[in-house]
Amino acid sequence: MSTQKTVSRRAALGAVASSVVALGCGGSQESSSTTPVGSGGGPAGGTSGGGSGGTSSTGGSAGTGTGGGLAQCKAFGPTPGCAVTDDNILGPFYKADAPFRSDITEGSTGTALRIQGTVYGCDCQTPLAGAVVDIWQADDSGAYDNTGFVLRGRVKTDDQGRYELTTILPGLYLNGSTYRPRHVHYKVSHADGVALTTQLYFEGDPWIASDAFVKASLVRPLVASIGATGKKEYDVTFDVVLTGV
Ligand SMILES: [Fe+2]
Questions:
Q1: In the 8-state DSSP scheme, what is residue 203?
Q2: Domain that holds residue 237
Q3: Most CB contacts within 10 A, which of 4, 47, 58, 62?
Q4: Could you tell me if residue 226 is inside a domain?
């Protein structure tokens, strides 16, 4: 595993970079030294019942925010029809102890991206307050900061289980001969739950089809808007459903 920044080959993509939906990030042997550490995942590709992130936004109105959903998981397993979020590879670039902050850009330039979501217990309804969402990603050129914490950070969910992050759209990097889809790495943990390692991907990414790791349940739509500066920016929602200990 290299500790050096990945050299971007984005320029070689030519026309691919013309659209934001031409997402993908390849490279740098993400597969070779990765450890599939995630543990909260349910059936691969599971999409039912608000599990697997994204579809569970209807739940969470009456939760205690204290892990009650996870206590249920521990006793009874996931609620029928509720799929816990699928796991995904850790990749070689995780760094522990990222700072707690909601804006992880730290001066990085690129296309603005806001990520929001809710962390639920495995009933897909109980929001989990105090869950730690730890994310890291490549910069606009496809490089990870392996010396500092640029584009790395942790946030805790609020009383409604919600989290928000300000970042940029991850760049492309090669994995062997093909680009990995653009992605944001996640580690989500809660005192009453099993930590989950996963990744967020984006609909319309042309590199999804050839990627060996992406799971359909982890792909979310990007919602475009024009920011105050007149530039295009994006929003994405990624809910997470954890399972209990
Ligand atoms: Fe990655």
A1: T
A2: 23-245
A3: 47
A4: yes
Question: 62 C-alpha vs ligand 1 centroid, how far in Å?
Answer: 35
* Whether the Cβ atoms of residue 184 and residue 61 lie closer than 8 Å to each other: no
> Using one digit for the tens of pLDDT, what is the confidence trace for 55-108?
333 333 334 444 556 777 777 888 889 999 999 999 999 999 999 999 999 999
0.90 exceeded by the pTM? no
Query: pLDDT tens digits, residue range 125-149?
Result: 999 999 999 999 999 999 999 999 9
DSSP E strand boundaries for 110-202: 112-120, 132-136, 152-156, 162-168, 174-175, 178-179, 184-189, 196-202
Cα 127 to averaged position of ligand 1 atoms, centre (Å): 28
**What is the Å distance from ligand 1's center to 171 Cα?**
10
- Measured in angstroms, how far is the CA atom of residue 185 from the centroid of ligand 1? 6
Q: Report if residue 221 sits inside a domain.
A: yes
Calpha distance 195→193 (Å, rounded): 6
Q: Are 35 and 90 in contact (CB under 8 A)?
A: yes
Cα 103 to averaged position of ligand 1 atoms, centre (Å)? 19
In this prediction, residue 178 carries a pLDDT of: 94
Ligand 1 centroid to residue 184 C-alpha, Å: 7
pLDDT at 36: 28
If you measure from the C-alpha of residue 91 to the centroid of ligand 1, how many angstroms do you get, rounded to a whole number? 6
The pLDDT of residue 68 is 55
When divided into structural domains, the chain yields a total of 1
Residue 42, domain CATH: 2.60.130.10
